[in-house]
Fold this protein.
Amino acid sequence: MNDSRVNDLLAFLRFPSVSTQTDHAADMRACAAWLEAKLSSLGFTAEVRETGGHPAVVAKSPYDPAKRTVLIYGHYDVQPPDPLDEWETPPFEPTIRDGRIYARGSTDNKGQILAHILGVGELLSRGETLPVNVTFLVEGEEETGSDNLAPFLERYRENLACDVIVISDTGMAAHNYPTLTYALRGIAALEFRVSGPSQDLHSGVFGGAVMNPATAVARLIATLHDQDGRVLVEGFYDKVRPLPEWEREALASLPVGDESIRTLAGVDQLFGEKGYSAMEQIGARPTVEVNGIGGGYQGEGTKTVLPKGAFAKLTCRLVSDQVPDEILHLVEAHLHKHCPPGVRLEVTCGHSGEPYYTDPTSPDGMAARRALKEVFEIEPALMREGGSIPILTSFKKILGKDTLLLALASPDCHAHSPNENFPLENFFNGIRLSQAVIRELGTVSRQPAA
Amino acid sequence: MNDSRVNDLLAFLRFPSVSTQTDHAADMRACAAWLEAKLSSLGFTAEVRETGGHPAVVAKSPYDPAKRTVLIYGHYDVQPPDPLDEWETPPFEPTIRDGRIYARGSTDNKGQILAHILGVGELLSRGETLPVNVTFLVEGEEETGSDNLAPFLERYRENLACDVIVISDTGMAAHNYPTLTYALRGIAALEFRVSGPSQDLHSGVFGGAVMNPATAVARLIATLHDQDGRVLVEGFYDKVRPLPEWEREALASLPVGDESIRTLAGVDQLFGEKGYSAMEQIGARPTVEVNGIGGGYQGEGTKTVLPKGAFAKLTCRLVSDQVPDEILHLVEAHLHKHCPPGVRLEVTCGHSGEPYYTDPTSPDGMAARRALKEVFEIEPALMREGGSIPILTSFKKILGKDTLLLALASPDCHAHSPNENFPLENFFNGIRLSQAVIRELGTVSRQPAA
């Protein structure tokens, strides 16, 4: 395929911009520099700005004070690509098969943010007057919790002032099904390590008289849920808003339900909190999930060792009105309360983000729905999503504006998984959607400054 | 130090003879060839013999049909050296510090078997007539369960016929404290894997509706023991012989107790089955121990993944009269019974070995105790040990003879751990012990052939 837009995406995807791994710091900078050059070439005033961590790229269209300003946010950092041996083609050698482009980051979030950049850039580079002022903000720390973004927004509060924010980092309810997501779960991450003997011991020579740290980690994890998956951490559900009947009905009417989620997950049967559909469990109920567990011998065969330590990495997904720091304290207290004797427990809290909820019937929400309908030719679904975009809370608190979440990922794009991909159809629809949404948002009357 | 015996040990320890890792197969053969050459140079008739796996080395002194035959067994294979970063010097670059030689395999079991080879070899090479016929059998699969040894003993039953077997692969009750071990725990290894989604999932997008395999592995491990560490697998203790009062008294009189075990293990407090001392928990009570656990993201930072699978590696330590295959079946049934819904469980049974008990007051036992007393100048301790030497059962069943376990390892030699070491003093004592024990065993009257 010789389409310059696709070639741009291929180039963007070749950067191994893994933000959580420090040895990719130079790749991150190279990727940011590429974005800056691309945006400049399209007619934006673009620059790489320091954040204290991986840099962000900011670009602006020529400014007209009479017009509204739309801030389009995305991220150029990606998840680690492992397990590498499960990729059909290497994660940073993007490959097109059956109309999809396979690469780490293709659907999270490089495909989408580049679609917006090329959509607006196409208008700009052919000399059209944009219906709104557009600011792009593309950061490099979304996958590690955007720790530096709130201070960045504080620092550039005036420079980044806008009327509304647009993000395409959510999933469509079904392939080619336009979707406006109005609620996202928050996140609170922690890691705990259990230490026992001063070094790995022979499990025959010492086993029976020493608490095994791997057993201790397992026992701690087993205390987190009841048999049905309901979280047993004391106080965990105290601030969870009950789901109103109208929302349960709206979620039940989506073109996705238990069976499609079961198929997408690739499991024989679903499992979760009793009394809720899978869409409700994912969109409207909180979780504590084990992202990683490890300790002792990991290799081939047997090693008769009683390991000196073991660990688990957890993330909680939160719904309104749970507060991340409160939840982290509750989980930490729970772990300390249940830690077996004979070992030491160390809990390290990680990144966090508040749950998000915005009104899909506001003027901007209605404009977004018109744009979605124009591109996809059906009424968009209104959806709650299970993932987290912690920075929505920062945008609301610091810039004072709501965010429109316009999905461009299909359900089988495998974000965070091996063989992550993005359909070229979605990429081209994204380019059209970007143009439609700035046109529709330009028709909304300006609100007085706060 | 320029002692040819120490130089021999340094050379022996340089082979990375890790039997469980298939990429070390050539190192195994090189190590066996080195042993064959060393034994031949001392006057033994030595050869490397195929076993179907890693080869064994067999060597014999000149045969006198009027004399008893002593078979001295050892192994040249070693445990994997990881975690590598905890070694002060590289595991296969043996280094002498403060009178100890540091290397993987130094105390398990290269130091001891070489002491025996050099002890008997010294007599032979200076033309002395040995008080017994000596056969050396040095195998390469002890650390992986000696799967090929029983068929090997069957095949060479006549060639390896003997009156008694001597092995130095146990630990002294304290440094320089002569020790005859009369009981060892058996072993039964298994690994289980829990599989859920067809691939790693985004823990936000799917978490709450899908059983997490890492959580399932943890929950399964948590079902294995009660709060005090007593095993909850149904039927697990059915065949465990109660500990008679005289043995509890003998174990209590050893120069090692709870406090010394706590210090050796490097833990703040011991943990184990109520009503038993640490020596009893280790020597006379069975266990189920987690040797390794893993699943999901293992790297730096956070990866918000719901892993497709997770695993645990277990070994049970068994006491008389538990039967390894029966115990494996009980544990497998327990795991299947407790596996949560929504995931698949696969159990793979590994190697096993029966528990061993022999009489320390037999004529050969008394001869061994005289030899130990001669070298160390105090009455030897009689001990139960927690480790396993599965092949003792094969020797008993196939060759029909008992085994004398003469300890040469000190308690802080760190078998199976980083910084494994062997004091040169123990090495030289081992050389003397080998000479003393064949002299004492030569004085025992021959038993009629079975």
